Amino acid sequence: MPTFITIGYGDQDGYDRTPEPLRKAAHAHDAQLVAAGVVMGTVGECVQVRNPEDTGVVKRGGPFMRSDLPVAGFAIVQAASLDEAVSMVSKSPCAIAHGVVEVWPLLTP
Hints:
Largest sheet: 4 strands, antiparallel
CATH architecture: 2-Layer Sandwich
Oligomer: single chain
CATH class: Alpha Beta
CATH superfamily: Dimeric alpha+beta barrel
Order of helices and strands: EHHEEEEHHE
Low-confidence stretches: none
Shape: globular
Number of domains: 1
Structural class: alpha+beta
Strand order of the largest sheet: 2-5-1-6
Number of helices: 4
């Protein structure tokens, strides 16, 4: 079955202005996904890692990419198709609470 990586973006303002019953339903939806085997979690602080031409590891705090909303979490989803993966995450808190969820097909050699 194909695997998809999802990245959820959202901020506290969008979360807070979403009606509480919708937020609770979104969290219950995520709990169902986790119970079904989806690997999911919220994020901590990010670290960039570089090792140019294998000359030594350089670490720097903070994300490399920038967006209007901060990254809130990640998930690894197995679904029969991209449409099914989109359907699975469309009711997650980031999608419901004025954020966005990216769905990336994980291509393997």
